[in-house]
Design a protein that fits this description.
This protein is mainly alpha-helical. The chain has 5 helices and 2 strands; from the N terminus they run H-E-E-H-H-H-H. The protein has one domain. The model has no long low-confidence stretch (mean pLDDT 91).
Length: 128
């Protein structure tokens, strides 16, 4: 399969899965009148205390199994963020398979930048 077609499919599938998870989470929020111990009114308030920084990975995993809408929405956002990372990771693989060392190097730098922006910088900002 052509690299551009593969990358296109990665992006499409990631976006579709993300949209479905977020829509399902919103459906659950409306059906249950909230989620993660927040009512729908508290969630939609402009003074809402709800933040993704306040929800742990364990809460998300437990929320998925208990059909918590907020957990599904956050999972959808994680999939959305992971989609371009997978695209870059696939590009590194593709360029390595083509033995194009320059593009492997450049794309690996882009991948490293993405991973630092996703994992390291938030950790640093949280500790300040």
């Amino acid at each position: 399969m052509d690299a551009n077609k593969s990358i296109g499919w990665i992006l499409r599938i990631g976006a579709i899965i993300s949209i479905l998870l977020i829509l399902f989470g919103m459906f659950l929020l409306f059906i249950n009148n909230g989620g993660s111990n927040y009512t729908l009114t508290q969630i939609t308030s402009h003074k809402s205390k709800l933040s993704t920084a306040n929800i742990s990975t364990t809460q998300i995993i437990n929320g998925i199994s208990s059909l918590d809408g907020i957990s599904y929405i956050i999972l959808g956002l994680i999939v959305l963020i992971a989609t371009p990372v997978l695209r870059v990771l696939y590009s590194v693989y593709f360029f390595a398979r083509e033995n194009n060392k320059l593009y492997v190097f450049i794309t690996a730098i882009v991948l490293l930048d993405l991973l630092i922006a996703i994992f390291v910088i938030p950790f640093i900002m949280k500790s300040l």
